[in-house]
Amino acid sequence: MQGVPSDEAARVPAQDGPEQVMPGVWRIPVPLPFALKSANIYLIDDGPGQRILIDSGLGLPADEQALRAGLAAAGVALEDLSALILTHAHPDHIGLSGIIHAAAHLPIYMLDGEEKQISAVWGKESAPLQTKLDEMYRMNGMPDELRAGSQKAGLALRRILHLPPADSLTTLSDGQRLELGNHNYEVMWTPGHSDHHLCLLRDDGLFIAGDHILPHITPNIGLYVGARPNPLADYFGALRRVEPLPAGLVLPGHGRPFEGLAERAVELHAHHDERSEFVYDIVSGERDGLNAYGVAGRLFGERLRSVDDWRFAVAETLAHLEYLRLAGHIERAAHDGVLAYSA
Hints:
It is built from 10 helices and 14 strands. The chain is α/β, with parallel strands linked by helices.
């Protein structure tokens, strides 16, 4: 992505569209102009005055159009919504939140700590953090051209997001019981994909997963500036937490709803264990060590085709490298201002 994403690049796959996944619950896919073609918004319709939205897509006009069309299919208008829950502060989940709030004047719920990321990462005061992020990529070996592209991509995203006013945000605590509509929800802190990622378990077993558990792809677990120091260890802990839950249908942030939360949590844990072993093998084969950019190139290979691919890959590689380093399996040293990892 080298400029502002366009509606022309944003198309929900032709075979996909709004669907009622169970009584009172609708999935509304909205387009993304990336390799991952769509994000899910969910409508929980418990009747007039009790209509809850989960997440809000990216922020392009095509996203708003898809959201309004999906709500119309469910017989609901944007102005009818009573609450918005944001599972985490990544751009493809918060992009329409300001438009939704302006239309419905509703409360917006996030886990305590995550709401700060909206302004710190995506707001008008985000320049200092972006400078630190660029330095992080430099210290881990990313070339100047890719770093410049990463900065441009971040700026493009910030331009299309419709952020909500700060006073519309209500924070939730881990373990809290949230009563909305005809149900109550257990609030769960599930760090890894983001530091203060939120999942919800409804009293009937419906599990709102956000990007913590995805059905066919693995969530990106990356290490970023100002984040918790060991996101992969956090993610493993959060997977173990949700594995024994009495969950029925799982509502993921991308892909179709599915059953089998425990089995999928085990699969994701095994995938990241295997990837950590691969990272260790790469590093142990380099006598003089290797920076995160170099490890990422070997880890992901030909899948790295764009600036977005590279910035996500380096951040995910860093999460694995730091997981191994903090466990005592590898070491880190600076050489000419660039960090290198060695076994």
